[in-house]
Structure formats: C-alpha cells, structure tokens
Amino acid sequence: MAEITLKGLAHSYSKSPSSHSDYAIRQMDHVWHQGGAYALLGPSGCGKSTLLNIISGLLEPSEGDVLFDGHRVNELPPEERNIAQVFQFPVIYDTMTVYDNLAFPLRNMNTPEYKVDPKVREIADILDLTPLLSRKAKNLTADEKQKVSMGRGLVRDDVSAILFDEPLTVIDPQLKWKLRRKLKEIHERFNITMIYVTHDQLEASTFADKIAVMYDGQVVQFGTPRELFEKPAHTFVGYFIGSPGMNFMSVSHQAGKVMFGELPLPVNEAVSRSVAAAGSSNIKLGIRPEFITVSQTPEANSVPIEVVNLQDLGTYSLLSFTLNGQLFKARLPEGHAPVGDAAHAVFSDQHIALYVDEYLVEIGHE
Amino acid sequence: MNNKVLNNRAWLLVLPMLVLVAFSAIIPLMTVVNYSVQDVLGPNARFFTGTEWFHSILNDASLRNAFVRQILFSLTILAIQVPLGIGIALIMPKRGWQASAVLILITLPLLIPWNVVGSIWQIFTRGDIGLMGWGLRELGINYNITRNAGDAWATIILMDVWHWTPLVAMLCYSGLRSIPEAYYQAARIDRASKWAIFRYIQLPKLTNVLVIAVLLRFMHSFMIYAEPFVLTGGGPGSSTTFLSQSLATMAIGQQDLGPSAAFSIIYFLVILLVSWVFYTTIMHMQKDKNPHGGA
Amino acid sequence: MYRLDNAQQGEKYNTIFSRTTPAQRRKRNARSRLRSRFLLGLYLFLMILPIYWLINMSLQTNSEILGSMTLWPQNLTFDNYIGIFTNSSWYMGYVNSMLYVALNMLITICVALPAAYAFSRYRFIGDKHLFFWLLTNLMAPPAVFLLPYFQLYYSVGLFDTHIAVALAHCLFNIPLAIWILEGFMSSVPKEIDETAYIDGYSFPRFFIKIFIPMIRSGIGVTLFFLFMFSWVELLLARTLTATDAQPIGMIMTRTSTASGIDWGTLAAAGVLTIVPGILVVYFVRNHIAKGFALGRT
Description:
The complex is a heterotrimer of chains A (366), B (295) and C (297).
Chain A: E1 4-12, E2 23-32, E3 37-41, H1 48-56, E4 63-68, E5 71-72, E6 83-86, H2 98-108, H3 113-126, H4 142-154, E7 161-165, H5 173-190, E8 193-198, H6 201-207, E9 210-215, E10 218-223, H7 225-230, H8 235-240, E11 247-250, E12 252-254, E13 257-260, E14 263-264, H9 269-277, E15 283-287, E16 292-295, E17 303-312, E18 316-323, E19 326-333, E20 342-347, E21 353-356, E22 359-361
Parallel strand pairs in A: 3-8, 3-9, 6-7, 7-8
Antiparallel strand pairs in A: 1-2, 1-4, 4-5, 9-10, 11-15, 12-13, 13-14, 15-21, 16-20, 17-18, 17-20, 18-19, 21-22
Chain B: E1 5-6, H1 10-36, E2 38-42, E3 45-48, H2 52-58, H3 61-91, H4 96-107, H5 114-125, H6 131-138, H7 149-177, H8 181-189, H9 194-222, H10 226-231, H11 243-253, H12 257-289
Antiparallel strand pairs in B: 2-3
Chain C: H1 6-17, H2 22-58, H3 62-66, H4 79-86, H5 88-121, E1 122-123, H6 127-138, H7 142-155, H8 162-186, H9 190-198, H10 203-214, H11 216-232, H12 235-239, H13 248-251, E2 256-257, E3 260-261, H14 263-283, H15 288-292
Antiparallel strand pairs in C: 2-3
Helix pairs in contact in C: 2-14, 4-14, 5-8, 5-11, 6-8, 8-11, 9-10
Domain ABC transmembrane type-1 (chain B): 67-278
Keywords (chain B): Membrane, Transmembrane, Transmembrane helix, Transport
Pfam families (chain B): BPD_transp_1
C-alpha cells in the first residue's frame, strides 16, 4: 500500500537541459493517494509515459523526488519498488505456460511452492484464466496475454500500485470494455493504487475516479471526469476533453466592451469585469459546443453567424459555423438545427469560461 | 503468408535465375552421376559399372576415417562456437560508435579469403616466426603442428573458432536486437535474475537465428577445405584430412573419375540428409510447442 | 485502517529495501558492466592478434622475420608492398579477384531480385519445391563440383576467364541472395505494390522506381554477403583458372619457392586481401545487424 508523491519532479533526456523545450517533464508536484483509480490522460508526446516510467523506477528523474509513503525512492530500481507495470504490447514469457508465467515473480523471490500454487490459482480465477493455466502463453490471444501480464503484477502480495501504459492498444474493440470492467473489479477487490496511462478520454473516464490531464510535460488539471468537462482548468483540457472540444475566442477589453476581434460580444457584466481585470494580452473565452444555442432569428444577446456545415448524428446534430472568420462547433438537440446559411447564436453566460494565459480564471457569476 | 496471389506468370521472373543455377548445378551434377556408374578409361572407352564405385567408396577405410574425423570436427566446433557466439553477442555494446566499431572488428575474420586464413594461422603458429608457436615454446610447451596430431587438431579447431565464431555472434546479436525494451523492463519488475532473463527472454528469441547458425556452421564445417589444406596439408599423416580434401585429392590429383563421382554423391547426400533431419526435427519441436499456432 | 504510522512504515520499507543500498547496487552494476567490457576486450584482442602478426610481418624484411623474435617491426619497411604493387603478375591477381567478384555480384543481383520478388509475392506451380531445391545448392560442397566444372567450362571455352568463376560462384550466391532478399521483400507491405499498379505503374517501372529503393538496405546487405562468399572462396576459383584470370589467393602460393618461403611478401599479400573486406563492411555497418538476421527476425 502506498501513497505516491512527486515533489518538484522534472525530467530531461538531455544531459544539460538549457531551455524549456529540453524537458520531457517540467517541474511538477503531484500526489497519488493510496487505493485510487487514476488515469493519466494526454496526447502522445506529452510526457505521460516518461512520468509512468519514473514512478515505476525504469527511469531516474533528473530533478526532484519520488516518494512512496513519504520515503524517497528515486534511486530504487523497479524490482525494489513494489509496483507492477502492464505495457502497451503484452509482455509474456513465450516458452512458459500461463501457470508458470503467473508464478514467475513469486519464484523469483524464492517463494516456496506451497505458497505459490494457491496464489496463482486465486489470481487465475479472478482473471478468468483458470482454463488456460496449462497452455503455452505464446498461443494466447492479445487480451488473454494482457491479462496474464496483469496477473503477474497481482500475484505478489507486496504490490502497492499497478501502472498501466496504454494496455488496451492491441485489444479488439469489443473486448476492450470487458477488460476495463475486469480492471475496475480488481481495483475494488484489492484496494490497489492504479495509474492508467491513455490518450483516449473515454477510456480514462470509464476507468478512473480522477484523471490527471498532461500537456507539454505538466499535469494541467487533476480532477474527476465531471470536473474536467465542466471546469477545464486549462485551455488544453477544454480542447482535449469533450467531443468536439471547447470553442475559444481570443478577446480584449476596449471601451467597456469585450471585443472578439472587431466584434463586440454580448456578455454579462461579470464576464466583462473579469476580462477587464485580467491584465494580460492573452485572454480567451471558452464555450463548450453543448452550451451554444442557435436560432433562425436574432434574439437577445445573440450574434449573427454563418453556417458552414450541419452533420446529423442521430440524437443530436453537429453544427459548424463561422463567427468573425473563426470556425466554431455547436452541439444542437434534435430539431433545433437552423435552415439556410445565416443564423444567430447565443453563448450561455453561465458556461462561458475565462482563460488568462491559458489558465482558467474564476468569474464571479451571479 | 497465405495472402500470396496465385500467378503462374511469376515463373517468368524466376526463369533467368533458374537458367543460371541449372547451368552451374544441374549439368555438373548430371556429369557426376554419369561418372559414378561408369569406368572411364579413355575418351571412347567407358564401361557401365553399376553400384560398384559406391561399394568401394563405402568400404574404403581411409575415407571412413576421414568421415569420422569430419563428424568429430563439426561437432567440436559447433559445441564451442554456439555458446561462445551467444556469449559474445550478449556482451556486445548495443548502440553508439562502440557498437559500430565492434561490429566491424568482429566481422573481420569472415571477410578474409579462406586460404589466407590458413596462411595467417600457419605463420602465427610456426615455432620460429609465429607469435603463438614461439610463445608456447618459450613457455616450455612442446608444440608442433607438423609432428603432433593433437597439436594439429587443436590448432585447426582454434582456427575455425577464430574464423567462424563471429558469424554465430553476429546472428545472435541481430536476434537480440529485435527484443523490445519492454521485455527487459517487465522482467526487472518481475525481479527476474540475469539468468532468468537469459533463459526465458533472450534464449527463446534466439531460437530462430540459432537454427540458421547451426545449419550454416554445420554445412560449412562439413565442406571445410582451404584452411586446413594450407595450415597442415591434412597432416601429420592424414590426421587432419577431411572429406573435401580427400575428394579433391581423388578427383584432381589421382583423376579417379568414377570413385570420386560416387564419393561426391554420397558426400552431398550426407549433408542434405543431416540438414534435413536437423531442420525437420527443429520444426517439429516448434510445432509441438505450438499446437494452436497457425504461423 | 490500512495506514500505518510513520515509524512502522519506515521500518517496513527498510526491510523491503534494505537488501541493497543504492550505492551498493550501483557499484555492482558498474562492476558487471566492467566485467563484460573486459571480456569483450579480451576476445577482440585475441581475435586481432593473428591479424596483427600478419601486418607486423608484412612490414619487416625477411631477414628480420627469420632473425630474432620481435613484437613490432624494428626496421619499418614497405618493400613488400612496393614489390606487390610494381609487379603486374602480383597485382593482376587482385584485379582478377575483384573482377570476378564484381561480375558475380552483378549477375547474381540481376537475376535474384526478380526471382525473390516472385517468391515473396506470388504462388505458382512448384514454388515451394523450387525454393527448397535452391537452398540445397547452398549445401553442395564445392569439392563435388570441381571436376564437372572444369570439364564443363573447358568444353564451352570459358576456362580461365573471369566470367567462368563468376558463373561458378552463382551456384551458392544466387540461392543465398534470393533467401536474404525474400526476407526483406516480405517485410514490405503488399499494399505498396497494389497502390502502384492502381496508379498506373507498369511492373518494370514500379519495380525499379519504387520497390528497389524501398529495399535499398536489404540490397546493400545482400551485396555484402555476395561479396563475402565470392571473395573468400578459392577452391572453385583456382580450379577454373590458369593464368589470365588467376585469383590472388593462388598467386600467393608462388611465395614458396625452392629457396624457401618469401614470408614478407606472403604477409603483405595477405594483408591486402583483408582491405577490401574492411571497406565493404564499413559501408553496410548500420544495416549489418539486421542483415545477419537475413531480414527475418
């Protein structure tokens, strides 16, 4: 059981990093609490695999500390950290049977066979591997192999965290959800900390209680799936979470009005005040496609838009339109789609978010 | 492999190759078969002899000795070169300029003409001017490859190990390089010892290249000619005379067309047979291990 | 209540982690690394030693060689090399060897490329048998073919020509080339071919313009192997030549005369036979590891 703390952690693959861009992970602090189911979500190249490898001990961070229950483990190799890791491509020992695969970590610790056997059978049972125990691991399907590699982590009593590095990449879509459920089940049963790296927001939100979104070497937001959707702390989170992602407008405050380029935006007092107080040249307003309503005729606080494309997606339709030359997306309920090229849009005031220098700034609504 | 298109016009692509290989393989082979059943006394005087030459070859004591020596030689060098080659491959650097440098150095013996390999070792082992021969003599060891059959054998084995271990090492090295890093990482997390990593990760991945290595080494060592010919000339006595040299002496030296042709055929068949048995055994073993695997 | 208090926890980690301290472990890793470096160094040293001795002797006069034992040349001399380079009967040996090796590489690659493509892409009547028969040619002892080759090439008037040796070496080089190339070609997705045909490429144009560039490294490695096996072979080369196309390996036997062996020249000639190999391996050094797996790991 362990609580994993990252303190002032940074990592660079170059020996003498000089600029920001030399870092795969930029200065960060983070705590993974014991027993949590976490996801580490981000696009490829954002540093999430690097972070995972630092936690597991395959990499030594160039700056800062990794603490397990308050003890510094920076220099400890993976074999002494009590963690298990499941890789993107299933790693199994081809020549061994499933049974021997599962027993392997225990035998490496010189566990007597009478203790190995019940443990292996227990884990095989949980993972539905019992009928396969005597099979050669080489001939298993990808999802079975992935279960075996997970099982090797679970057999050890001392494992306090399991790290998953995009474990479902090679699994057939229809089996993915089954395996994800299995993961959930194991998490509930063993009370083990699990960190799940993925670039798929759906996978992250179905698996994890809390998601850490990584962008450009940093965790930009750590929250529940709901928080990520409703209150993205960073423009990247807004853009990355939700489909389609958040719409952003670069705005400025001129003569008492919030200007989107040449266009004054009809926003309420609170927003306007916050924009005025921002004190930066990088101010953006964000609005989720779900919170834009579109009508045929002008309404209060509406802006005129030009329809580009309308996609009917069954229960809802996706409208692409331009405003002030920029492309926006709106998600409209059935029957609310406009006809023709010109229409009017209203941005719901409560759902407008303000970003100064890419980070969220609270607006004093109401 | 099963997604190939059936297209008999592919024969057109194979044809030029076929003509050339047929010219250098089939016609000579037919000549050999032809000779093996005849006694050629002159341009217009040949007699059909049936299997007579084959009988005499199979009953020839000196050839039988050469055959035993050949088997002994091939087994010995395989027993040394395979483990040694694996060992070297394991300690070769994986990347950087050192990797390139070591690669080039290790490949070196493979690119030396075989008779020059013989010459190098002839010089190297001479008691008067060779470093090794001189060194051993200075150490008080009575080493002489022209007199002592044991010394000659040891030297030829050493020479072959020097010459061909690089091939095994290179094959294994390329096999090792194809193992994804994740395997080693998983093994560390599973607390596998170095031996366990070798036994359960590296060795299984090496089986394919090792099959090739053993086949190639068996074939080549079974045909060895130039190196011992230059180094010992087959001596002392006939203690290091192997099959190819016996054949060359018989065919070129003594012009015994019939017996040497029969000998050739038996020789070729033995290599084919051993290679085939080895190959099918390995494939069979892999199939046993893999009852559900459609390749 | 899974949470232990701090002191207890500290103890727990100490017992788990105390097997080795980081410093000890680092030392152990460094030591095992050092050991493998040492063993590798030792192997390379022993491997180089005979070659060094050859080079050493090639830079000495015969009187120094036969005189007292010297570990390096006391009177450095290049006379042995100069002797080889100024005597046409000597250096023509190199020219002959290189000529037939180059000819063999050219012929082999020209016929092996289309054949390997056929094996990697199509099924046709007898394909498996043909492939197996090809491989059996790799197992044919050259000694078996000595006499028939001699007679065959003599009767067609090719005896003592470079082309004769080049053709003879095709016996083992063509099967080898097809084997290696087939491995490389099979790793190129078939979709590439299909797309090209849809784009209106004819087969020859596709093959030369698209396919061959894609397996460049495979061809490089194949040429390396062709060079290697043709350059090192002597038995056939010797049998099929007399004077005009004699390989260097044969000319080297001239150093032993009635008055003794000309060690210096023999050594120098030997050193010169190693040089082309070094050049060739240098060119393919980045692909060679994959090449030795014959394109199929």
